[in-house]
Amino acid sequence: MDYQNVIGQVMSAAAPHIGEGAVADYIPGLAVVDPKQFGIAVATAEGQVYSDGDVGIPFAIESISKVFALALVLSRKGTALWDRVRREPSGMPFNDLIELELEKGIPRNPYINPGAIVVTDQLLFDTGDAVAALRDLFRAETGNHALDVDSVIAESELRSGERNRAIGYLMSSFGNVRNPVELALDHYFRQCSFSITCTELATAGLLVARHGLRADGSRLLERADARHITALMATCGTYDAAGEFAYRVGLPCKSGVGGAILAVVPDRCSIAVWGPGLDPKGNSVTGGIALAAFARASGFSVF
């Protein structure tokens, strides 16, 4: 595969749309991000990285962190997690409360906010420090030993997190939070605030593309668990637009309101795109266009 040629085609398709969409202005730290930026990085299973655009500019990882938090919980043989979180698409916004109330505090899947808060709560219960566990994983997989939480974004998350607090306390009222709610939420807010680049995110995503193998060749996940993570990316990873992404892109994806989307082609590569402008569902406008172009140019699909 001539990845650099594919990336050239992606950049041509994405260029007219750079700056489209709206940044996530409900989080103050994201409201000031320049939307006229875009980058794509492809990390292959053999270890090469191909990229173009703004791939060295750090951004907030936001909900893409949910993939890695879930991996850490499952790596600890945390199958009891599935008693607390389901594995179904929601069809509702990622911070919806109505469905959560009707379903007695059990979130539909681990990639919407309620489910991710449960996963972080479980990781905190298992390790004593969910943020440190994620930091160690990100640093090891990216090779950037300075990678850390952006304190400005974390403070923004904390100050604008009323709805996530409502989610946390609602789940707690049904007995589905193990730690003190505010402590679990503190770790969740900081988890979403890791600062990462496109190149680093694509490299970290190889953990999933390689079926649970880490950068050093050791195994974090059983193949079955890695397959489950990938399946949930395909069915639930882009909020209530997962069906549209399956139709247009055909690859497992996980998006974040920082404007990034991580996609994986099992056994082949991991793709990270970043464009801060979001559509009404919370997914990067330019990122979605770029991934559709990548799928067309590469011929890759899981369907």
Average of pLDDT: 96
Total DSSP helices? 13
Characterize the biggest β-sheet: 5 strands, antiparallel
Distance between the termini: 19 Å
- Overall geometric form: globular
Topology, pairings included?
Layout: H1 3-14, H2 28-31, E1 39-44, E2 49-53, E3 59-60, H3 65-75, H4 98-102, H5 113-127, H6 130-142, H7 151-159, H8 162-173, H9 181-191, E4 195-196, H10 198-209, H11 223-236, H12 242-248, E5 253-255, E6 260-265, E7 269-274, H13 285-298
Antiparallel strand pairs: 1-2, 1-7, 3-4, 5-6, 6-7
Helix pairs in contact: 1-13, 3-5, 3-6, 3-11, 5-8, 5-9, 7-9, 8-9, 11-12
Structure notes:
A hairpin with a 4-residue loop joins strand 1 and strand 2 (49-53). The protein is α+β, with helices and mostly antiparallel strands and 303 residues long. The chain starts with a helix and ends in a 5-residue tail after the last helix. The longest helix has 15 residues, at 113-127. The chain contains 13 helices and seven strands. It is globular, with a radius of gyration of 17 Å. The strands form two sheets. The chain has a five-stranded antiparallel sheet with strand order 2-1-7-6-5. Strands 3-4 form a two-stranded antiparallel sheet. Helix 5 crosses helix 8 and helix 11 (223-236) packs across helix 12 (242-248). The protein has helices at 3-14, 28-31, 65-75, 98-102, 113-127, 130-142, 151-159, 162-173, 181-191, 198-209, 223-236, 242-248, 285-298, and strands at residues 39-44, 49-53, 59-60, 195-196, 253-255, 260-265, 269-274.
